[in-house]
Amino acid sequence: PRDAHDEARISNDGNTVMLFDYEGFRIYDKKGEMISETGLPDPESIYDQQFLKYELKEPPEVSAWGPSVLKVIWYDGTVRKYNASDGSLMSEEKGERPDETLYEEFMTDDYRIASSLHEAPKVYDSISGKFIKELETDAYLTYVTQAGEYIITEYVTAEGERYGLLLNERLEKLAYLPGLTDYWDGKLIFDYGSGSLRQSRIYSLQELMEIAAVYKQ
Length: 217
Fold this sequence. Notes:
This protein has 2 helices and 19 strands. It has helices at 60-63, 205-216, and strands at residues 7-10, 16-20, 24-29, 34-39, 46-53, 68-74, 78-83, 89-94, 104-107, 111-116, 119-125, 131-134, 140-147, 150-156, 162-167, 173-178, 180-184, 187-191, 197-201. The longest helix is centred in the last third of the chain and has 12 residues, at 205-216.
């Protein structure tokens, strides 16, 4: 609980969890033992951080980075990638200064979602490019994940609070998920600042009704 952090993300192999913010990151194993701790240089000049989970279908030059990577981008164009398993620096390069609107695109099976800092995320059909709808307007979209037949969108508010929304294939809201911090191995991962991460699979409406009936008894 003493480890201050903005995000907690689980590596693709499920063996480690990274707690990170703009100051730095810590990596823990399943038993809660700290594997490594790293401070990030010039944190006031960091533009963005992205926790990336590469799949084996990625090109060899990408998957060679490892299953999970923390990508840190500075305003001067410096990009560093850290291995999420042991915290080692994997690469560093200097490119163009990033777009300060935080423009980013996310892809799902059927949609392309365009997000920027001061506009509502816009959803387009991934094949035709046709505009579909806008998403939440009261928080910044951070991640979009295809979870089987569902879509999970993750947000951070101006106050730094994180939450997720579970959507169906028609982008209709099924559930509000306060404290959602990741989706791993078919499970929702929650971080309430207690020092532990909690996980839950996605239940169908029928299963929830059956659970409620048991508790009602």
